[in-house]
Amino acid sequence: MPTHTPPSPICVSVTVLSQMFLYLASLKVDTDEYLRSLGIDPEMVKSPDARIPVETYLLIQDEAAHYTHDPCFGLHMGEFAEAGSWSILGYVMMNCKTLGEAFEKSGRYSRIIGNLIEARVELKLNKIRVVFFTPPHAPKMSRHCFESTFSSSVRMMRTLTGVHLSPLEVTFIYPEPKTIAEYERIFCCPVHFGQKQNSMTLDWSIVNTPILMANPGLLEYFEEYAQNFLSEMERKDEHARAVTKIILSRLDDESLTIDKVAKEMAVSVRTLQKRLEEEGVVFSDLLKDIRQRLAQKYLRENYSVEQITYLLGFSEPSVFRKAFKKWSGVTPREYRERGYSSAPVIAGTSLTLSRPPSGVGGPS
Fold first, then answer.
1. Identical fold at 11-232 and 235-337?
2. CA nearest 155: which of 98, 218, 86?
3. What is the third-level CATH fold of 235-337?
4. What CATH number belongs to 11-232?
5. pLDDT for 301-356, tens place per residue?
6. Which of 119, 115, 165 is closest to 359 using CA atoms?
């Protein structure tokens, strides 16, 4: 059986919507009216510390692309990125001494703005190659997310330093669009499509580029705030994360109930329900969500339906097929045949890098 690790719920800070709204405003779009057309209360996305589920974020972004009839919506949205678009992370980066230090802080505190895109850094001679990817339990997404991440990253590099910095090369895994003029205009470098990875290659020398508004005192203040913010995020989710670990360790238990989980945690069912409720979580929804996302992950990894049935604790394949159809609207076979297993998972709201310089990137 594969080793399970708790998948963190994917969510996005509402501050990343600010660059989208700035772009929409430039097109004379009434953002409040637009949000209401989607059934979303505008007040829901105005609290700077609020976080929204990834599905809500993707709905707002993808529908905006249709609403504006802009095939390059993500690229253009990224051009409106500013420090405030990245919440407290943006202000931390703005007060660093050099771009290299800002990259490092981006990697350290990226979870503040979301956890939809991760990245790893490859160092080759005098070049830095940043490879972007999404967690396996991320939902299927449009190309606008990745394009806005790349575009906003380049915009932030230029804004922070006052220098028109550009990548050496940008690659995307999806097919080349009808025209690439906007890609070349924004990135000012060769852009290749149909590649194995989504990546951005930078010249190593840019890490020494000074940041215009560097302020050590403010950096210390904002970094302390960022550390406290992350600690608070972890505290708020502690019971949901504890329950998730137990669910993952017992996925093959068909009769897993909140009663069993509460007993293992040495609390009453009522107490556990109340603690989860305070974190906005319902046990049955959490169990279903974990099983759904792992089912999609295993299908992408070409596990058989029989294997997945066993791994996720279903009594028989027919029961799993019925549940999967209810979750996804398609059968496991259709999920594979329609290319979900190999389709590019394209999105981005944050960046976590594994080695220095540890971050280039930002919200989608």
1. no
2. 86
3. Arc Repressor Mutant, subunit A (1.10.10)
4. 3.90.1520
5. 788 888 888 888 788 888 888 888 887 778 888 887 765 433 322 222 233 222 33
6. 119
Instruction: Characterise 141 by phi-psi region: left (phi > 0), alpha (psi -120 to 50), beta (else).
Output: beta
How does DSSP assign 272-292, residue by residue? HHHHHHHTT--HHHHHHHHHH
Longest dimension (CA), the chain: 62
Q: For the whole prediction, is pTM greater than 0.70?
A: no
The label of the residue with tokens 């700035």 reads 22
Which is more confident, 6 or 120? 120
> Residue 336 burial (CB < 10 Å; 0-12/13-18/19+)?
middle
Domain range annotation of the chain: 11-232, 235-337
Q: What is the pLDDT of residue 158?
A: 97
What whole-number percentage of the chain has pLDDT above 70? Answer: 89
The CA-CA-CA angle for residues 199, 352, 350, to 5°, reads: 80
Is residue 226 within 8 A of residue 207, CB to CB? The reply is no
